[in-house]
Amino acid sequence: MATKNLLQAIYEGLAEEMRSDESVMVLGEDVGRAGGVFRVTQGLQEEFGTARVMDTPLAESLIVGSAIGLSVNGMRPVAEIQFADFIPPAFDQIVSEAAKFHYRSNGDWNCPITIRAPYGVVPGGALYHSQSIEAWFCNTPGLKVVAPTFPADAKAMIKSAIRDPNPVLFLEHKRTYRLIKEEVPDEDHEVPLGEARVHREGADITVVAYGLMLYTALAVAEKLSEDHGIETEVVDPRTLYPLDKETILDSARRTGKVLVISEANLTGSVSGEIAAIVAREAFEWLDGPVMRLGAPDVPAAAFAKPMMDYFVPSAEEIEAAMLELARY
Amino acid sequence: MPQLGESVTEGTITRWLKAEGDEVAIDEPLAEVDTDKVNAELPSPVAGKIEKFLVSEGSTVDVGTEIALVAVAGESDSPASDAPPQENTAADAPTEEFPASGTEAQPAAQDTERQQEVAHAGGDGRGEIEDAETLRLTRSSPVVRRLAEEHGVEITEIPGTGTGGRVTRKDIEGYIEEQEEREEYAPPGLQEEREAFEEPEPEIERVPVYEGDRVEDLTGTRRAIANRMSASKRQAPHAWTMVEVDVSGLAALREREKAAFAEREGINLTYLPFIVEAVVESLREHPVLNSVWDEDRIILRKRINVGVAVDLEDALIVPVIADADELNLVGLARKVDDLVRRARARQLGTEDISGGTFTVNNPGALGSVVSTPIINHPQAAILSAEAIVKRPVVIDDAIAVRSMMNLEVSFDHRVLDGGAALKFLNAVKRRLEAYGPESDTG
Fold first, then answer.
1. Is domain A197-327 given the CATH code 1.10.10.10 in the classification?
2. Rounded distance between C-alpha atoms, residue B220 and residue B205, angstroms
3. Which of A42, A136, A168, B99 could bond A144 through an S-S bridge, CB–CB 3.0 to 4.6 Å?
């Protein structure tokens, strides 16, 4: 077991699956010779050749459409969308074709594709390299949406996604690629899709978060424990669609106080869905309002750093919200 | 409810002088308030629109209880939290509460009303929407409400440490745990022992007994009298007053009529039926004397059932003339005679000694000229008629010898005051003095 960051963990997961299953392949913009803009796929083309690690034109609809065609002909393609912001041209292929394939064929056909997409705010990213697009897809039955934040989870879940018989949208938070490092098991560690992870146990409040917000919330939770003796339970949903309701509700019922944080635009967000589930199904256990923190309803994080910082919930804002909830 | 005087702890809203929705100016009278010291108009401490009365007319509430919500123009209710607007459940109306809501639990007297009101406002679209601060104190949160219900605890009794004094889950859990611990600390052992511990028998302080003393055990009647007299003296604050009645005319009438009466009716004509008749007619004029104290209210009895104290050698019994107001003098005389004879023969049934609403005591028959009777609790008053004695009295600056009788009442000062007692006593006196030798006894 060695310490790895998120990039390395995803690379390992892809490489191990390609070694053990010849039908697994990678396609996308600059994934081959260049090794991907974030270097996730670096070395794959040398090891597996141009047929299994394929550079594509700048045409997301084509990338996903080709993946669908390959998948129904026996391959298990992993399509990379260079930035999640670029995914709209492939929207129809994902939502109307891939997600519906199994259902439309009455279960006769599967569509085992994985679509990797880096998301989230990054300094200088601005309009086209910063968006959190998960909510667009968390309303589409037939599709699974996962967003692992920690390296060990990411390695295990990219494997689960590849092995899943139907389409999985695999979201990677850009800012956490090199930020988070942890011990990643060498052996075939499995994390099934649809299971949340409790990173930290606590009796006072529950924070549900993913991506960079999860990382920040964990740091604030430690601070609140030291400064105020407030113990926060931090739940990482890992899979955003379908949600692991049981783990979230179990924590909500024990603490009675829930804060959901993500950096997506708040209105119509996955946070809203989580809050609604808690409000309905943990109602009798609640001891405070179900709270949410997210980005304001403006188009995207700005290029200017002060504006970008304002857009994303800060550690200070998260701490204030957690304290307010704990003291409510 | 403002403090309308030193040591005033509660007040009754006797009348709202405004209606919900009315505008009220600063210092404009808002309500009439009754306290144990003063009756006063309550000036509004703020100007604005009356949103809601929280206390209904006739309700008595503790000082400090919120009694009304007044929306003050130009002030905005700051939202309870900095949470995004989607989360904010605070009512939009700018509302100023007075007195400012503190962190103390709401007084118990208001609980029921408040709870009902809150329940009514509960988002069903029918009631008015309460402001978040009030709701936070009374409803707290779903888990606190559930725990309160499961453990039979009033949320408002628990000191809260949450936002605005809200009772948090930890507060109620701690409170319940404390209560359970208290129960556990009850002395161990058998249930009988525990009960004995909880209610220790009061130790009797014995009176020394000297040589030659005779010790008699209490009879049931003696014990009953003891208990009832003690209870009455303990519970009812007794006050006493007396008037002198010139019954010369009545004495002459009785003297003239008693032989004929005895022959006609077969019973002796005593003063008692005259007194009872005067009492009954006066009670009808002053019904507060014919009433009962009932903790937070006074019950004015419709029926007039007059008890007559009858002295037995070793006890006192009070048979009751039911519906005494339906009997004339002869009827009263017969009834009194019947009851007294049966009392002495120990032949009274339960129905003969229950249901009294007022009692007439007649110690004058035993020669008493002044007595301070104990009220037959829970009745409001008792009248004593003393012996009729000839005394020199001053009439029109001349001294005359007249047949005089002292007439007294002991009354429950919780129910009525000296003024009412004397109005009643003077009404009885007026009637007794109106008798002359030529009056009718038929």
1. no
2. 21
3. A168
Is the preceding peptide bond at A192 cis, omega within 30 degrees of 0?
no
Partners of residue B86 in chain A, C-beta under 8 Å: 266-267, 292
Distance CA A155, CA A251 (A): 26
CATH 3.40.50.970 is held by the domain A2-184: yes
pLDDT in tens, B45-86: 888 888 888 888 888 888 788 888 888 876 544 444 343 434
Burial class (CB in 10 A: 0-12, 13-18, 19+), B234: exposed
Q: What are A14's two structure tokens?
A: 């892809």
**How far A327 CA sits from the closest chain B CA (Å)?**
6
Q: Where are the domains of chain A?
A: 2-184, 197-327
Radius of gyration for chain B, computed over Cα atoms and rounded to the nearest angstrom: 31
User: Whole-angstrom Cα distance, residue B43 to residue B33?
Assistant: 10
Question: Which chain A residues are within 8 Å of B141, Cβ to Cβ?
Answer: 256, 286-288
What are the two backbone dihedrals, phi and then psi, of residue A90, each rounded to the nearest 5 degrees?
-95, 5
Domains in chain B, ordered, with CATH? 10-139 (2.40.50.100), 237-433 (3.30.559.10)
- pTM, 2 dp: 0.53
d(CA B123, CA B172): 25
- ipTM comes to 0.73
3-state secondary structure of B120: helix
Mutate to test the interface with A, among B139, B168, B172 (most CBs of A within 10 A): B168
